[in-house]
Design goal:
288 residues; mainly alpha; Penicillin binding protein transpeptidase fold; 12 helices; 3 strands; elongated
């Protein structure tokens, strides 16, 4: 028995309008097409849609690839490359430096004979430490006290004094070009950290003594010893070693074989300081 209560809502119902009836409703459904395209935004009177040209997206893609390539090159040549080269120089002698090439083009010649640290006199090691970096065995690449003293001295004197350690000088000589810019100083600090970590003190001293400039076209202890005194680097006397160490600040100006009054005084002080280095074991990180 069906419920004939008209007030009860039993779901969705389609009720013909009074004016049109079922025929008009059916006709309106026939006019609807599922394939009809929606009206454009402009048909409603709104602003046209924003479209991104394909060329713009392509340009962004190209610049993105360029940026990634540049970043990769910076990582390879700025970070990974120096680490690999520094690690290689831990075992093989570094080749020509920027300074050596520059001196060759200046017509100063080239004289260098690589020797292991065991083939170089301990007297020269102690004299160089006494002259250039007394705290070589105790610092980790930088002597900030010496830097401050050098700055204070340079502010009140026309004669410039350097505060670089042997580690810093080695980093500069081997990897960089002669310059006084902030960029080069920053790179010098970076390479100093690398050689302190990858080489150790003995290797730093060995590379330094084989690469430092000791006269016009003369590089390394062996060439310097033979050029100035006619002996090999392992035969240097204390006085000869002190003279070689004394001319390091200005090897193109001063002479170890025929020293002037200033070099004589300086080498005498270095000879005495080298004795202190020996007695107090301040070269133990190199000589053991």
């Amino acid at each position: 028995m069906s419920d004939t209560n008209p007030d009860k809502d039993d779901g969705l119902r389609l009720t013909p309008q009074a004016s049109g009836g079922w025929e008009d409703l059916a006709k309106s459904w026939d006019d609807i097409s599922l394939n009809e395209k929606p009206r454009s935004v402009n048909d409603r009177g709104d602003a046209p849609p924003i479209e991104i040209p394909r060329d713009a997206s392509r340009k962004r893609g190209v610049w993105g690839r360029v940026g990634r390539t540049v970043l990769s090159l910076v990582l390879i040549f700025g970070l990974i490359g120096p680490v690999l080269v520094t690690a290689a120089y831990r075992f093989v002698p570094p080749p020509l430096t920027y300074l050596m090439v520059e001196r060759v083009f200046e017509g100063r010649g080239f004289n260098r004979q690589w020797r292991s640290l065991d083939e170089i006199s301990p007297r020269l090691v102690r004299s160089v430490i006494a002259a250039e970096d007394a705290k070589f065995c105790s610092h980790h690449g930088f002597d900030f006290g010496a830097m401050q003293k050098a700055l204070a001295h340079n502010e009140r004197s026309k004669r410039t004094r350097g505060g670089s350690t042997i580690s810093q000088q080695t980093a500069k000589n081997i990897f960089l070009w002669p310059d006084r810019s902030y960029v080069r100083k920053g790179m010098e600090a970076y390479f100093t950290v690398l050689i302190e970590g990858l080489w150790g003190k003995r290797r730093i001293m060995e590379v330094y003594l084989n690469s430092v400039e000791w006269g016009p076209g003369v590089y390394g202890a062996e060439a310097a010893a033979r050029k100035n005194f006619g002996v090999s680097a392992d035969r240097l006397t204390p006085a000869q070693a002190a003279r070689l160490a004394a001319i390091l600040p200005s090897p193109l100006k001063w002479r170890a074989a025929k020293p002037g009054p200033y070099v004589k005084r300086r080498s005498g002080r270095i000879d005495k300081a080298a004795g202190t280095i020996r007695r107090e074991g301040m070269a133990s990180c190199v000589l053991g």
